[in-house]
Design brief:
Elements (H helix, E strand, L loop, with lengths): L13 H24 L10 H30 L7 H25 L2 H26 L7 H29 L5 H33 L6 H23 L3 H27 L8 H25 L9 H38 L8 H4 L2 H23 L1 H43 L5
Helix pairs in contact: 1-2, 1-3, 1-13, 2-3, 2-10, 3-4, 4-5, 5-6, 5-7, 6-7, 6-8, 6-10, 7-8, 8-9, 9-10, 10-12, 10-13, 12-13
Length: 436
C-alpha cells in the first residue's frame, strides 16, 4: 500500500544532504569519547560520558538524519511542500549541530551554562522546524499510514523535546523534578514515540520500494503509530499522578508493539523479490534482530523492575536498541537514499538527453558491505564492553570511530561522484544534443 510519490516536488539535493553527511561525524565524536573515557563510561547510564555519548548519537546522528529525511520526504510522500526548503535546512542544520555539541559538552563538564544553552538552542531549533513542517503537513489529509505516522511522529518529537529541555534546565538551574522518572519517560518518547513511529512511517515506503518486499498490511500500518503515541501519553499520565503500575503497563505494551512491528518487517523481507542481499538488507536484518532482543530486555523490566538494577542491564538494552537497532536502520536507509537521490537529480538534469549513471556507480556495493562488516565488529565490541568494560571499552570506541568514519567516507565519496557527473552532464548539455 505505497502512497503516490511526487518526485517532481523534491527539494534541492543540498537541503537533506548536509544532514546526511554531518550525522556520521557525530558518530565519530561518540566513538572518540568512548575511546578516551574507557571503562569508566560504562559504570552507569548516569556517568557524564555515557550521557554525552547518548546525546551525540540520538541528537547528532539520529535526529540529524531524521530531520534531513523529513525535508526530503514531506513534499515527495505527503505532498506537504515546505515554502523554502533550503532556508529551513540552513536554519535547522547549524542549530541542531551546535545544540548537540553544547549539550554533550555540558554533560561532560557539568557546566550549567552549556547545559542550559544547549537546551535553549535545541529548543528554538526544534520549535522552528516543527512550526514550518506541521504548517505544511497538517492541512494534508491522512490518506496513507505514512502521512498519518509522520504527523504523529512530529507530535511525539515535540513531547520528547519538551521533556528533554525541562530536564536540562532543571540540571542547569537546580530545579527540583523527578529526574529518573522523567529520564525514562524522555527515552520512551524519543525512542518509541518519535524515532519508532517515524521509522515505521518511512518503512511503509522504503522497505517495499528499495527492498522489493510485499507492502505492509493495512490494519497494523494504520494503528501502530496511534497505538504508540497513546501508550506514551498514558505513560506521561502515570508519571504525573505517580502510578508506577500504569507506567509499567505502557512500557510492556510499547515493547510488544515494537516486537510485533520488527517481526512483521522481518517476515516481509523474507518474501522479497530480490535474491541477492545488499548492504541495506543486511543492515535492516541486523537492526530488526537486535531491536527484538533489546525490546525483550525492556519487556523483562516491565514484568520484573528489579532487572534494571542488574549490572550492565540498562547499558546492554541501550546498546541493543540504539546502536544495534536505530543506527543500522538509518545507515541502511542512507545507503539507499543518497545514491537514489543522486541518480534522480542527475536523471532530471539530463532531461532524457544525457543518461544518469546507475546507482552502483555512485556508491559501490562492495564499499558499503565492507563498512557494514566494520560496524558489526564495533557493535559486538560495544556489547562486550557493557559486560567487560575494563577490557573492551577502548577497542569498542576505536572500532565505532572507524566504522562511522568509514560511513562518512562512503557518503562523501558518493557526493563527490554525484558532483562529477553533474558537471559532466552540464557540459554535455551545453555542447548540444547527445549523439546516438
Amino acid at each position: 500500500m505505497l502512497p503516490m510519490l511526487a518526485f517532481d516536488n523534491a527539494p534541492p539535493f543540498k537541503a537533506p544532504l548536509r544532514f546526511f553527511l554531518t550525522a556520521p561525524l557525530f558518530g565519530v565524536l561518540a566513538g572518540v569519547l568512548v575511546l578516551v573515557e574507557g571503562g569508566d563510561l560504562f559504570a552507569s547510564r548516569w556517568t557524564p560520558g555515557a550521557l554525552a555519548v547518548t546525546h551525540l548519537i540520538t541528537i547528532g546522528f539520529m535526529l540529524q538524519v531524521m530531520l534531513g529525511a523529513l525535508i526530503q520526504i514531506l513534499p515527495v510522500v505527503a505532498g506537504a511542500s515546505l515554502a523554502h526548503p533550503m532556508r529551513v535546512a540552513r536554519n535547522v542544520h547549524p542549530g541542531l549541530s551546535i545544540g548537540a555539541l553544547m549539550l554533550a559538552a555540558g554533560f561532560l563538564s557539568g557546566s550549567p551554562a552549556l547545559l542550559g544553552g544547549g537546551a535553549v538552542v535545541l529548543g528554538l531549533t526544534l520549535v522552528y522546524f516543527l512550526t514550518v513542517s506541521l504548517a505544511a503537513l497538517w492541512p494534508v489529509p491522512a490518506t496513507s499510514p505514512t502521512i498519518r505516522g509522520i504527523k504523529l511522529a512530529l507530535l511525539a518529537l515535540a513531547g520528547t523535546a519538551m521533556l528533554g529541555i525541562v530536564m536540562a534546565l532543571a540540571l542547569a538551574l537546580g530545579w527540583s523534578v523527578p529526574l529518573v522518572a522523567l529520564a525514562d519517560l524522555h527515552a520512551g518518547w524519543g525512542l518509541g514515540g518519535w524515532s519508532g513511529v517515524l521509522l515505521a512511517a518511512m518503512a511503509y515506503v522504503v522497505v517495499p520500494m528499495f527492498q522489493l518486499t510485499p507492502g505492509y498490511p493495512a490494519r497494523p500500518s494504520w494503528w501502530f503509530p496511534a497505538f504508540m503515541l497513546a501508550a506514551m501519553l498514558m505513560w506521561g499520565l502515570a508519571v504525573l499522578i505517580d502510578w508506577p503500575l500504569l507506567g509499567r503497563l505502557c512500557l510492556i505494551l510499547s515493547a510488544l508493539a515494537g516486537i510485533a512491528f520488527a517481526g512483521l518487517t522481518l517476515r516481509l523481507q523474507f518474501k522479497r523479490r530480490r535474491a541477492r542481499p545488499d548492504a541495506t538488507y543486511r543492515y535492516w536484518q541486523l537492526g530488526l534482530t537486535l531491536s527484538i532482543f533489546g525490546l525483550f530486555f525492556l519487556l523483562t523490566v516491565g514484568f520484573w523492575p528489579a532487572a534494571a538494577e542488574l549490572a550492565g542491564w540498562t547499558l546492554l538494552f541501550g546498546i541493543l536498541l540504539v546502536a544495534g537497532g536505530f543506527i543500522p536502520f538509518i545507515a541502511g536507509m542512507l545507503y539507499k537514499i543518497v545514491p537514489f537521490l543522486s541518480w534522480m537529480h542527475l536523471q532530471n538534469l539530463g532531461q532524457a538527453r544525457v543518461p544518469a549513471p546507475a546507482m552502483n556507480k555512485i556508491l559501490a556495493e562492495a564499499a558499503m558491505h565492507r563498512q557494514f562488516l566494520a560496524y558489526g565488529v564495533a557493535l559486538a565490541l560495544l556489547l562486550g564492553a557493557a559486560i567487560w568494560p575494563e577490557w573492551l571499552a577502548r577497542p569498542a570506541g576505536l572500532a565505532f570511530t572507524l566504522a562511522n568514519g568509514w560511513l562518512f567516507w562512503n557518503l562523501a565519496g558518493a557526493t563527490r561522484r554525484y558532483r562529477q557527473h553533474l558537471a559532466d552532464i552540464e557540459l554535455r548539455l551545453a555542447a548540444g544534443p547527445a549523439t546516438p
